[in-house]
């Protein structure tokens, strides 16, 4: 079947806080969160 399974990898409180920050440095917080998330290993579905 044509099904796409997605899972958010934001189990870490710090990543969620960085992505949801509404301060004036919002762009920097999002960039920092993206860098941290990219360094995490990808989980496999098996």
TrEMBL record:
Q: Kindly indicate where the leader peptide sits in this chain.
A: none
InterPro entries with a match to the protein in the record: Flagellar_FlhD, FlhD_sf
Q: Which domain of life is it from?
A: Bacteria
One GO BP on record is: positive regulation of DNA-templated transcription
Keyword list (alphabetical) reads:
Activator, Bacterial flagellum biogenesis, Cell projection, Cilium, Cytoplasm, Disulfide bond, DNA-binding, Flagellum, Transcription, Transcription regulation
List the GO molecular function terms. Answer: DNA binding
Q: What does this protein do?
A: Functions in complex with FlhC as a master transcriptional regulator that regulates transcription of several flagellar and non-flagellar operons by binding to their promoter region. Activates expression of class 2 flagellar genes, including fliA, which is a flagellum-specific sigma factor that turns on the class 3 genes. Also regulates genes whose products function in a variety of physiological pathways.
Protein's UniProt name: Flagellar transcriptional regulator FlhD
Q: Which species is the source of this protein?
A: Thauera aminoaromatica
**Taxonomy of the source species:** Bacteria, Pseudomonadati, Pseudomonadota, Betaproteobacteria, Rhodocyclales
